[in-house]
Specification:
By secondary structure, this protein is mostly helical. It is built from 13 helices and seven strands. The chain folds into three domains: about 100 residues; about 120 residues, no CATH class; about 70 residues, no CATH class. The strands form three sheets. It has a three-stranded antiparallel β-sheet. Helix 1 packs across helix 3. The longest helix is centred in the N-terminal third of the chain and has 46 residues.
């Protein structure tokens, strides 16, 4: 209490309150403060220990990455890339990605991307794709990357000229990319779209796999000529020039002979450097006598039956059929997928550019 008499004065209309005033201290005690400081000190120590562990892990990851990068550049005579400031900028991005990832495969991909960058120091469109790919290496999901890689391989390369042997080699090469499950549904496409690796087109659906194969390998589906009546010479302006090994048994239609090519364009490439009139005569003869450019329905059905029975192409065909929407590859997606493909394809079954 403050005194025995309390006198208040106030103006007109005021409200007056009179009584005892008690002040209570509700703060922390000294013991509680020391206890809190002790807990804080322990947390600081733990945080520093975790930071030291992170630094040690970071150092090991960078060593693993650089242990791949330096020998690769040296092997290809590209160590002078370190004199290029732009390359150093890309290297720093790669080091950040390497420090952030626990996947050993990412170090190989980063190495492949930097090697590619060192080989094309002035190709600005290519460099843009490479540097953006470096930025997302540590963020792309394993299954999404696998699906992207298989798609790029399937759409970027084709079998050889022979049907049975070409398909077998093609299937074996694709099988090397299937080191785990392929992604299902649409989440993996959304993920890649966020990373700028693909562009979704939700208004369209994927082209039917059977149709896609027919467009990619029309030379396999040509009706051919009866083995007993198949011409042995090209004819036209070169009546005495023999077809030789350019023709052979049609593996999809018994008793038929076909020109061993994938399509007209491939046939012209096979004879690149030869006189143009000779190339034209070969193409004309292939169309006239062996039906190159046409598609036989029985051959198509047999081709798809064989493909669906193959260890890799069969599951890939089923996977293709369930992809929910069409999508297009960006330069980033193509660059990233090729880096992953070349990392896996040690036997170089897929041709390098």
């Amino acid at each position: 209490m403050i005194g025995d008499r309390q006198v208040q004065r106030a103006g007109s209309g005021s409200t007056q309150v009179q009584g005892d005033i008690n002040v209570t201290y509700t703060g922390m005690t000294v013991a509680e403060v020391w206890s809190l400081m002790t807990v804080f000190d322990q947390q600081v120590i733990q945080a520093r220990e975790h930071e030291q562990q992170a630094r040690a892990t970071l150092e090991l990851r960078l060593q693993a990455f650089e242990g791949r990068l330096i020998p690769s550049l040296a092997e290809h005579g590209l160590l002078d890339a370190f004199a290029d400031p732009a390359f150093i900028r890309a290297l720093k991005k790669a080091q950040e990605a390497a420090a952030s990832t626990e996947r050993e495969a990412d170090y190989d991909m980063l190495t492949a991307l930097l090697k590619d960058r060192a080989e094309h120091p002035r190709d600005r469109p290519k460099l843009a794709g490479i540097e953006r790919s470096i930025e997302i290496v540590d963020r792309v999901d394993d299954e999404a990357l696998r699906g992207l890689t298989v798609f790029v391989a399937l759409t970027g390369w084709r079998p050889g000229f022979d049907i049975s042997g070409g398909l077998d080699a093609y299937d074996k090469a694709l099988a090397s990319l299937l080191d785990g499950p392929l992604p299902m549904g649409s989440d993996w496409l959304d993920h890649l779209d966020i990373l700028d690796a693909v562009r979704l087109n939700t208004l369209s659906s994927m082209k039917d796999f059977d149709t896609y194969v027919a467009e990619r390998m029309p030379g396999f589906l040509a009706p051919g000529a009866d083995a007993a009546a198949a011409p042995t010479t090209i004819g036209g302006a070169f009546p005495d020039m023999r077809w030789g090994e350019l023709i052979g048994p049609h593996d999809l239609i018994p008793g038929k002979i076909r020109v061993r090519t994938l399509d007209e364009e491939s046939l012209r490439v096979q004879f690149a450097g030869q006189p143009q009139d000779l190339i034209d005569a070969i193409v004309e003869g292939a169309k006239r006598d062996f039906g190159l450019g046409q598609q036989d329905a029985d051959a198509h059905a047999e081709l798809m039956r064989r493909i669906r029975a193959m260890p890799a192409l069969g599951p890939i065909a089923e996977w293709w059929g369930q992809i929910p929407s069409a999508f297009g590859l960006t330069v980033v997606g193509r660059t990233l997928a090729r880096a992953n493909l070349y990392r896996i394809d040690e036997s170089e079954a897929f041709p390098r550019p």
